[in-house]
Specification:
Number of strands: 4
Oligomer: single chain
Structural class: mainly alpha
Shape: globular
Order of helices and strands: HHHHHHHHHHEEEEH
Radius of gyration: 21 Å
Largest sheet: 2 strands, antiparallel
């Protein structure tokens, strides 16, 4: 590599190479040094969202009033915090440091396999109560009445869907709009997670935020589904390209995962004592604790492929610079 290429990388491409490095370092920190759930900003964000919903969501109001209340509540939660977090790096002497913190916060949840393994361990020793408590940090449904099959099923569903919400959202939207767009997409997604539209109480209240979340999650979910399908030799139906799905329908990634694991996913869930029907995915036997380990291996392989692909991009860019200068 001659001096001309080095000077080009240090002058013209310095910001690009720095962005690559920041993303890769943040990924390493998010995977190797995850925060305890009780210490994560998303935990308090979810508590604030549920508290605001308790004060503003009135099922006795008309659907229009509930939808309007949900829209205003979402704006009240997103706009102030998003503006503060986005403006903070612009005022700092080292903006990359605060951008890295924002990316790290947005990547909270990528270590879903670690929580899933802890749940599996508790199931193997027969401690269902602790397993349900740990599962509660991954899902937004009632877990008290779940059996071993129900705990295993919801854990596997979280393993198969969380990477699209966290890892792929950051990697897809950072090149498009930087940390500002990543943070916005993650905040919208967390609100949709806290106010599930399948819940009878939030059916009208969460309409706006759910529609926006489906639009923002279309690209990350599509990439995640394609990666899982390719690595597990599965066919991806063309309907996966649709940007919306029914309220009772499940992500295509669950179909791919259930087919790869030869197990059953989906089915009814409970929200505050209300039984809500969902699509059933049947490709084998009911899942148990051992199936969680199989799902962890499947998800880990897909995440590793994505991270390796992203890590190779700086090398590809440098190689193109070398070829262009020769």
């Amino acid at each position: 590599m001659d001096n001309q290429v080095i000077n080009t990388l240090l002058t013209q491409d310095a910001e690009l190479i720095g962005s690559f490095a920041m993303v890769l370092v943040t990924l390493v920190l998010a995977y190797q040094f995850p925060l305890s759930p009780a210490w994560t900003p998303t935990y308090y964000w979810q508590r604030l969202a549920r508290s605001l919903a308790d004060k503003t969501c009135r099922p006795t109001n008309s659907r229009f009033q509930q939808n309007l209340a949900g829209t205003l509540a979402a704006l009240l939660l997103i706009v102030p915090f998003w503006l503060i977090m986005v403006l903070l790096p612009t005022l700092a002497y080292y903006p990359w440091f605060f951008e890295g913190i924002i990316l790290y916060i947005s990547l909270i949840g990528v270590q879903v396999n670690r929580v899933a393994t802890a749940i599996q361990t508790q199931l193997l020793v027969g401690n269902k109560a602790l397993a349900k408590l740990q599962l509660h940090s991954l899902v937004n449904v009632d877990t008290q009445a779940l059996s071993v099959i129900g705990i295993s099923k919801l854990t596997i569903e979280s393993q198969l869907t969380t990477p699209a919400r966290t890892l792929l959202t950051c990697l897809c939207y950072f090149p498009i709009g930087g940390v500002a767009l990543v943070l916005l997409a993650r905040m919208v997604n967390e609100l949709a997670f806290c106010w599930p539209i399948q819940h009878p109480r939030y059916h009208a209240f969460a309409q706006s935020i759910t529609r926006l979340n489906r639009v923002l999650q279309w690209l990350p979910e599509l990439v995640w589904q394609w990666v899982m399908a390719i690595l597990n030799h599965q066919s991806l139906p063309l309907k996966a390209l649709a940007s919306t799905r029914g309220e009772s329908q499940l992500p295509t990634s669950l179909t791919i995962g259930a087919r790869s694991l030869t197990t059953r996913l989906g089915g009814p869930v409970m929200f505050d004592g209300h039984k809500v029907s969902r699509t059933k995915i049947d490709y084998g036997t009911e899942p148990y604790a051992a199936t969680i380990a199989q799902a962890a291996s499947l998800v880990r392989r897909s995440q590793l492929f994505i991270i390796c692909l992203c890590s190779s991009l700086p090398l590809v860019w440098i190689s193109l610079r070398v070829i262009a200068s020769s």
